[in-house]
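**User:**
Make up any protein.

**Assistant:**
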Amino acid sequence: MRFTLLLLLLGAVARAQVPLDTAGRIITCETRDTAFGAFMPPRASIVDGSADITTTFDLIFAESVPEEARNSMQFAADIWGSYLQSNVPVRVEVDWRDEDDDRLLASAGPATFYRGFVGGVNRSTWYPVALAEAIQGDTLNSPDDADIFVVVNSTANWNYSTDGRVPRNRIDLATVFLHELGHGLGFLSSIDSTTDTTVTIGLDGLFVIYDLFLETPPGRSLVDAAEFENPSPELLAAVIDRLDFAGESAMAKNGGELVPLFAPETFDVGSSVSHLDEQAYRTGTQNALMTPSLAAGEAIHDPGPVTLGILYDLGWPLRFDLTSTSEVYAGQLGIYPNPAAGSFRLSLAEVHTPTVAILYGPDGREAFRQDISGQYGEARVSVDKLPPGLYTLFVPDGDRAFSGRVVVR
C-alpha cells in the first residue's frame, strides 16, 4: 500500500492567477510491513475537545465520501488547525473514488502556487496558495476555489476510528489525511525527472519555497546554479545520495542536526525529496508522519516537532514556541495598527510579566527583539528597520507565552 501525493501545479504570479503549463504527477510511497499498536496520540486538547482551532479547514466533500470517512478527515484537519495560524480558511476539495490500484491510498497537493505577494521572502519563489494566504493574511484566489485537492482511494482497507486503535490489517484514514494535508500545506519539492539520467528543479523556471532549504553534503544547495546545472546528471546524483532539509527551525527540533530526507538510490518521482527519511524517523516515533510509508495498524495523530519546524521555516505562522515548552496562546495579543509602518502598539492587558517582544521573519529566523520589561498596559514596538513582510510576534510570560502576526508595510 502506498501514500500518494498529486502535485497539481497550477500557479499564480504576483496578484493575478497565471496557470503553469506543468502536468500533474502522482507520487507514491510503499508500505512494507505491519506495525500493530504503533500510536502517536494527538495533543490532549484535541482528544478532550478543548483545542483552540486557529486555522479553519473547510472540507468540501464529493457525494461519494462516506459520513464516517468525513468525520475522520475533519479530525485530521482540526489537528493541523490547532497548530497553524491563518486568517484565511484553507479550502480542501476531497474526492473518494476507486483508483484501480490497491497500492494507492490517497493523492493530494496544492491547487495553485503564488509569488510576489505581500510578505513573501522572494518575489521569484513559488508558494502553495494556503501558505501564501497565511503569510499575506488575505485571500489570493477566489473564495470558491480550492487551496488543496485530495483524492482518497475508496477501495483501501480503511480504519475510520480516531482513537488510535487500528486493526493490524487496516490503514488509519486520519493518519493518511493528516499526511496528505501536510503536502498540500507546503511539504513538497518541485524536483522532477526529465530523462533516466537527469532531474530538474523548479516550476516554470522558478523554485518552490521548500526547494530553497535542500542541501547535499558538504552543504551544497540544490538551487545554487554554481553547484548544479539544472537539469543535469549531477543534480540527479545529489538527490539519490544524502539529502537534507537545512531550515533553522527544523534543525532546532532535530537536536541541532540537518534533517535527512527520503533519497532512495533510484529516484522516485515526487516521493523522493518530499518526505522525511524512513530510517531516521522510524515507525512509532514522534516524527514519523511525513515519512514515505505507513504501516497497517499504525496511527500517527500529530505532525511531530520536525515537520512543524519545516513548515515554520517555509513561513507558516505556528502556535508553538521553537525555543521552550511554554504553552502558547495564539492570536491573543492586541496589535495596533496592523499592518504597521515604523512601529505598532502592543497591548499587554493579558501579559502578567512582560520581558521581551520577539519578531520572527517568514523564514523562521529571529528578525528583531525589544525589551518591554517594566511596561504595563501597552508597549510600543519599533519595526522601522525591518523589511516589509509578515512576522510572527512572540511574547514570553513566565511559564506561558503569547504569539500573534504582524504585517510590516
Observations:
- The chain has seven helices and 26 strands.
